[in-house]
Amino acid sequence: MGRAPCCEKVGVKKGPWTPEEDIVLVSYIQQHGPGNWRSVPTNTGLMRCSKSCRLRWTNYLRPGIKRGNFSEHEEKMIIHLQALLGNRWAAIASYLPERTDNDIKNYWNTHLKKKLLITNHRHHSHPNGKGQWERTLQTDIHTAKQALCHALSLHSSPSPYASSTQNIARLLQNWTTTTTTTTTTTTTTKSPVSNSNSNSNSSSSSFANLCIPPTSNNSSSDADTSSYTFFHQDDETKPNLHDSLLDKWLFDDDPLLNPTQDLFIPISPFHQTPPHLF
DNA sequence: AAAAAGTACAACCGCAATGAA
DNA sequence: ATTCATTGCGGTTGTACTTTT
Q: In sequence order, what are the residues at sequence separation of 6 or more whose Cβ sits closer than 8 angstroms to the Cβ of residue A194?
């Protein structure tokens, strides 16, 4: 007795979105804001299911999305966070606000996984290298530790979407350029906003909450969070993790060998329930 | 130049979580 | 407490594009 599908299978368009559809969707969200996806297809006349509309918006049309190549910094963050959080792409994406979880997932599957395989193979024969089980164990410990920090920290409401004006302008601009160069065909190759020149404030990311362990040299105190220092995102005394400390956290050592290097744990505003502790 | 193989990524699918009735 | 519509997430697929043969 399964649930009814989210959308009727008949009469629903699938496949790549056309620029026209993008404009309709963006215009609608510009007026009504994101959400209530169920009503979007009926109100806009789009022959798409609500799920498809939401996905198109969150992964592609939403303002503030950075496209194009990942920087070395982003790459290292993803590697480190993946070691820490596993394949929880939404959680990882919350640390890279300009990237979507889908983007990060794709990048991981197409680039980083191979890279890590090669690197791990390189380290495997090293006599002093850590075993896979040991690294897994340490990752689990850190995941638990991170979850504990999260459970004790304050939640911040997810940041509201910024205005779509910039996105629409970009969309229209690119659309006009592409439509002049292509004939009117129903098979669109790529959506016009896929250019990489999208973002402006690339260095402004910050963390919602921050949890700092007392000291880094005693692993036995990991579970004792009573002496941890917690900061809310609005706390002006909060150290600037992103600019300096995180760089240290990321770059001081090989993240592949030391995913648990213990100094600072940034806490993400999880969309869902944090992982269970034990 | 053409075919085959490889790559990148947008989009879909199914399931789980959530919240309202 | 239960049901059910809606939303969010992660895994997977389809296909356009690029590179190699």
A: A67
